[in-house]
Design brief:
about 70% helix
Length: about 100
């Protein structure tokens, strides 16, 4: 019986996963959609990554939709997010990055 190891996580996905919390904490929340897309596309190979990536994308989509649909006069997503929302968004990014990094081994 041959055991086939699951494919390794690419470096691009690992870098993108760690870039999300850095970008959100650095007040570039709107641009963090690019690394989130990279994580989503790269997570198609591994089932456990899909759930983490989908959760992170849902957090991003909820924040973006609230900002765009709401009566806010904030010029950017980063300015719109409260400190608590920024901390939660950053924490979600770190959790996904750790999950992807742990599974990369």
């Amino acid at each position: 019986m041959t055991v086939i190891a699951p494919p390794r996580t690419s470096k691009a996905v690992l870098i993108a996963a760690w870039a999300v919390p850095v970008m959100v904490a650095g007040q570039f929340a709107l641009l963090s959609g690019v690394p989130i897309a990279v994580v989503l596309i790269g997570s198609r190979r591994r089932r456990t990554h899909r759930w983490w990536a989908a959760g992170l994308a849902a957090v991003y989509a909820a924040a973006l939709t609230t900002w765009l649909a709401g009566p806010s006069s904030a010029p950017s997503l980063s300015k719109f997010l409260s400190p608590v929302a920024t901390a939660l968004f950053t924490t979600a990014g770190v959790v996904v990055a750790v999950a992807v990094s742990r599974r990369a081994r």
